[in-house]
Structure formats: C-alpha cells, structure tokens
Amino acid sequence: MTYLSKCEKDTEALGMRLAHSLPSGSQVIAMYGELGAGKTAFIRGLGQGLGIRELISSPTFTIVNEFQGERELYHFDMYRLCSADELFDIGWEDYLARGGVCAVEWSENVRDAFDGSEIVVTIRKTGEDSREIDIEGIALC
Questions:
Q1: Tens digits of per-residue pLDDT, 72-94?
Q2: Domain spans of the chain?
Q3: Residue 23 in contact with residue 100, Cβ under 8 Å?
Q4: At what angle do helices 39-49 and 8-21 cross, to 10 degrees?
Q5: Cα–Cα distance measured from residue 118 to residue 36, given in angstroms and rounded to the nearest whole number
Q6: Domain 2-136 falls in which CATH fold?
Q7: Strands 73-77 and 131-136
Q8: Which residues contact 38 (CB under 8 A, 6 or more apart)?
Q9: How many helices (H) and strands (E) does the chain have?
Q10: Where does the pLDDT of residue 101 fall: very low under 50, low under 70, confident under 90, or very high at 90 and above?
Q11: How far is the C-alpha of 69 from the C-alpha of 78, rounded, in Å?
C-alpha cells in the first residue's frame, strides 16, 4: 500500500500506525530510501507506537540502538556495512530470537539476511517535505 506524507509529523504518524498493526513476536522491518528520505522519522513514530519514551536517533556510529517500551525496538543502521555476513557477526540472530522489533535502515546493504517474511518500507522524496511511503507485508490498522 502507498501512503502520502506531507511532512515529518505525517511520516512519524505512519510509523506509529505500523507499530499498532504489528502482531506479537519478533518482527523485521526492512527500510529503504535515500539519505534524508525520512527513515529515522518513520522509526521515531514506530518507537512511539511501541511505547518508547526515549529520543530515537539514527545509530550510524553504533550500528544498533536498543530501546525498551511495551515492546523492545532494535534500530539498526546498515549504512556502513557491506554484507549480510557483517550483520550476522554482530549477533543478528540473537536479536531476532529476543522477540522484539528489528527496524533496519539501509536494508539494501544486508538483503541476504532477510528470509522473505520482513515488512518492507520504502520511502521516496516527492518534494522538500513530502514523501511517498510504500509498506508491504502488512495491512495497517
């Protein structure tokens, strides 16, 4: 399904809707979009929907940030990784086993780590503040 966002708040609100639509158990959200597309804004909204009160920012220099809320959120930034092997080296399977939500920015760099059951979010800039957001693999509430 394709959604339109006119501003950052719309993008965050869509992330929150996704959070409210997620079934229980481990979930992988593969994020795609160019630099500045709004992936982190979407994940901020996702975190709010998961009951996380901490400020969510991109984990570019740490690879993954962990957040506790009503559900755990693991926010990955794969910008600096070159392969899925590097993701497995940092414990990808352990994160999956913990039953939280794994939101992965720059998923194109680790595509081989996914098993086909992931939710795919693609964000495209359509203007300075506007975005087109495709969400595949789940229907939103």
A1: 999 998 887 777 888 888 888 99
A2: 2-136
A3: no
A4: 50
A5: 23
A6: Rossmann fold (3.40.50)
A7: unpaired
A8: 5, 8, 11, 123, 125, 131, 133
A9: 4, 7
A10: very high
A11: 23
